[in-house]
Amino acid sequence: MSLQELPVELLHRIYDHCDERDVANFRLVSRLLATGEFDNISAIARSTVAKGVRSLCFYAARLDDLQTFDRWDEERRSSDPHAHKEAYGLLDLDYRRERTPPEVQSERSMRLYRRNLGRSINVGRGHYSKPALLSAFNAYQRLYADQKCLKREGLARKAFAALFRSCTKLDTVTLTMANELRITKNHGVKAFQKAMIYPFSDSHARYYAGVHALESVLLGAHDGGRSIRRLAVQPVAHTFFELPPPVAKQMYEVAAGIKELHIGLESVFDDRFSEANELIYERMMYDLKSHKVAESVQAATNLTTLSIGGPLTLNDLSNVHLYCLVGAGSRWQHLSTLALRMFSCTDTELDALLFSHRSTLRRLELDSAHFTEGTWEGFLERIAGKLDALKTMRFREELSSDTEGIYTEFMHEYYGGLRSDNEDSDYSVGEYGGSEVEQWTAAMETYIVKGGESMPRLEDFFDLDNFDMDW
Questions:
Q1: pLDDT of res. 112
Q2: Total tally of structural domains belonging to the chain
Q3: Tell me, what's the pLDDT at 448?
Q4: pTM for this entry
Q5: Which helix (H) or strand (E) holds 309?
Q6: Domain F-box: where (predicted)?
Q7: What pLDDT was estimated at residue 11?
Q8: 154: exposed, middle or buried (C-beta count within 10 Å: 0-12, 13-18, 19+)?
């Protein structure tokens, strides 16, 4: 049994329902919605349950301050799910517009399509009962009040310090916002569903998303005299890493104990939107060139797992440079897993990074990578079979370069569940693009791990004259 299976309402009072024997019999995971509440976190720290807490999942999402039912209902209706397509898919909230039926009409995909279409029609007509709407508004008010309690920085830091001091087994922290749930199990979502509101970040999210929450957790760990073994945070604004020297010193002391680090920087930039959007993009890229993110990552000198991604950029906007994320020189002696997303570099720079870890690197993932110099074909041929310890290779999205354009596109990251080695998958390959996609991706991955006389070619798997690469 896991406490994650219990209703969300019991989160903050779970210690009232367990004794020490129960806690000793299963792995306790403390989950806090939004910012939690100082008194409740402190109560967990004082309870016998603290002895069994091993990991903390911390939802840092923010809801707008909608004080009246009318304002809440207006916001609920005006939220555009297509602006946050991934989030609404994960939250299973209302689709207000008709959606195109899936091309491959499997029974399951058609059920999902009909269900979402029916919901969109009902919501468009306002087909929610008044009691249901009032119940959702009350759920929103409770969630908003819960978030508000720990916005006072002093209390947040004290609460987490007490938690780390009491929870002697606590070594794993996952900090996320509800529109970025790929890094953790989707356990806290029901609270947002009940509130019928898409959870937004703080104002000016590109600059502040997750900053206060992550700082509170890490400084709390420092004050509690503890280190963190595993830290996952997505999304977080790059401004978090621009720390004043006294704070940076404390953060780096905590970072030195981290073995597994997962970071996803906040923001999606598309040059089709507006000049203001592009100006924000340019400001962020300028800030990232200070290498503060890389400096913070390299402070975690004992890493065995590193997963890091830059902000998502679309169309003609460039990805952040690899060295802005991980630095030019590697300090990780035991790095066994490396996942890099949304970055650009030269082929020789990526060469140098990978070959510096050839004796320890067992798993490599590349997602949406771009070469400003060099070609992917030459790079892939150089590393194939040459990374001595490599056991697993994963490609996602596209590989592109200035000279080749889009070199190739692999299986989309959202289709990771299609793989036969993913036991959590609810999907079959046939629903999304057919077995050729998986075969092509798997063949390239096997080639990188084992090498071979020649690289697998697209024409070996697809009829290129009649195949649409946009899967």
A1: 66
A2: 2
A3: 95
A4: 0.73
A5: strand 305-309
A6: 1-31
A7: 41
A8: exposed
Q: Can you list the residues of the chain whose pLDDT is less than 50?
A: 1-16, 23-29, 31, 33-35, 80-102, 104, 150, 179-187, 201-204, 412-434, 470-471
Q: Are residues 127 and 225 in the same domain?
A: no
* C-alpha span between 101 and 118 (Å, rounded): 13
- 133 and 52 share a domain? no
Report CA torsion sign: 378, 383, 385, 390.
negative
pLDDT given for residue 131 in this prediction: 85
| Distances from the Cα of 183 to the Cα of 98, 178, 262, 332, 398, angstroms | 29, 11, 8, 23, 21
Phi/psi at 149 (nearest 5 deg)?
-60, -35
* 321 within 8 A of 347, measured Cβ to Cβ: no
CA 457-462-465 angle, 5° bins: 110
Tokens of 155: 């209390």
Residue 446: predicted pLDDT: 93
Segments forming the whole domain that contains residue 244: 3-61+147-466
Q: Locate tokens 């920085």: which residue?
A: 153
Asked if 336 and 290 touch (Cβ cutoff 8 Å), the reply is no
The pair of three-digit structure tokens given for residue 39, joined into one six-digit string = 């008194």
Burial 243-266 (b: 16+ CB within 10 A, else e): beeeebebbbebbebbbbbbbbbb
Whether the Cβ atoms of residue 266 and residue 311 lie closer than 8 Å to each other? yes
